[in-house]
Amino acid sequence: MKALRFHAAKDLRIEEVEAPSAPAPDQVLVENRFCGICGTDLHEYAYGPIFVPKVPHPFTGAYGPQILGHEFGGVVKVVGADVSHVKPGDRVSIQPLIMPRQGDYYADRGLFHLSANLALAGLSWHSGGMAEVALLNDYNVQPIPDALSDQEAALIEPTAVAVYACDRGGVTAGNSVLVTGAGPIGILVAMAARAAGASQLFLSDLNDTRLALAREALGEVRTINPNTEKVGDVIRAETEGNVGCDVAIECVGNEHALKNCADAVRKQGVVVQTGLHPGENPLNWFDVTFKDIDIRGSWAYPTHYWPRVARLIASGQIPASRIVTKYVSLSEAVTAGFDQLLDPAGKHLKILIDLSR
């Protein structure tokens, strides 16, 4: 079968590889339909290996070359003897987190996403979404409602990240929310905040093109370019009592964006760190203490979110498909997908690979 595999930084190859074998009793073989190119995939391409193991993963045994793709869905082809929740022909979305199901401190408490042995399909597992088919564990394969399109099935994973970030921030009806970063995750976080009841949305980014795309996707949102406006000043001027926003969610992994969040949030507000920072990030900890704010991390998502997120998308409460700006075939995914998304001009948000083309 054809697959896009990561070999090293700037070395992605479309290759003919051996198709997965028949599923074990607790596994499912899926014919992939659409797969999103994620920021994590872009970082692997530009700077990796980062998450792709150089030596066998302690739980899965996987290591490079790696078939990429962890935002995907498809149609069930074959199920193992013990699988009963899906059958051949079912349309599904892939929940890509792979980890021990028991005998692990966090797994035993249902917090599978926090397992120290966590792996991901498309990064540290033998299969991924950027291939014709994928072999997955039964718990990775989630049926989707009829109202959800095949394209939207590939958007559940990034939307789950966004919904969890809002949950970590405690976003609720009437809140004012700042999101830093107008990339796919930032825009999805803003959509998720609105679905949770936020009545006032602010979105900051250094790229005016992306801010324009965000306005098209979101409608009513106050966009801010930190190059021309001070984020905290804008938000204090436009929030009730001029005190700042209730929740600020950092979706860049950037020192200045996090500082803007801490500055813009009101006293006893909440800052959620969603973007992955490459190194240490100094904050003004006097202000953190003086303002009595909470700073919370948000890592991935609980695996049980899939049906909830699917409903939010299918109902239109989170119109996730608005972040898709382009479709490409697998054969053109590197030049027309990865390279386009790394363009500093930022002309695209989410690019989906159509595995049927």
From TrEMBL:
<protein>
    <submittedName>
        <fullName>Zinc-binding dehydrogenase</fullName>
    </submittedName>
</protein>
<dbReference type="GO" id="GO:0016616">
    <property type="term" value="F:oxidoreductase activity, acting on the CH-OH group of donors, NAD or NADP as acceptor"/>
</dbReference>
<dbReference type="Pfam" id="PF08240">
    <property type="entry name" value="ADH_N"/>
</dbReference>
<feature type="domain" description="Enoyl reductase (ER)">
    <location>
        <begin position="7"/>
        <end position="353"/>
    </location>
</feature>
<dbReference type="InterPro" id="IPR013154">
    <property type="entry name" value="ADH-like_N"/>
</dbReference>
<dbReference type="Pfam" id="PF00107">
    <property type="entry name" value="ADH_zinc_N"/>
</dbReference>
<dbReference type="InterPro" id="IPR002328">
    <property type="entry name" value="ADH_Zn_CS"/>
</dbReference>
<dbReference type="InterPro" id="IPR011032">
    <property type="entry name" value="GroES-like_sf"/>
</dbReference>
<keyword id="KW-0560">Oxidoreductase</keyword>
<comment type="similarity">
    <text>Belongs to the zinc-containing alcohol dehydrogenase family.</text>
</comment>
<keyword id="KW-0479">Metal-binding</keyword>
<dbReference type="GO" id="GO:0008270">
    <property type="term" value="F:zinc ion binding"/>
</dbReference>
<dbReference type="InterPro" id="IPR013149">
    <property type="entry name" value="ADH-like_C"/>
</dbReference>
<dbReference type="InterPro" id="IPR036291">
    <property type="entry name" value="NAD(P)-bd_dom_sf"/>
</dbReference>
<dbReference type="InterPro" id="IPR020843">
    <property type="entry name" value="ER"/>
</dbReference>
<keyword id="KW-0862">Zinc</keyword>
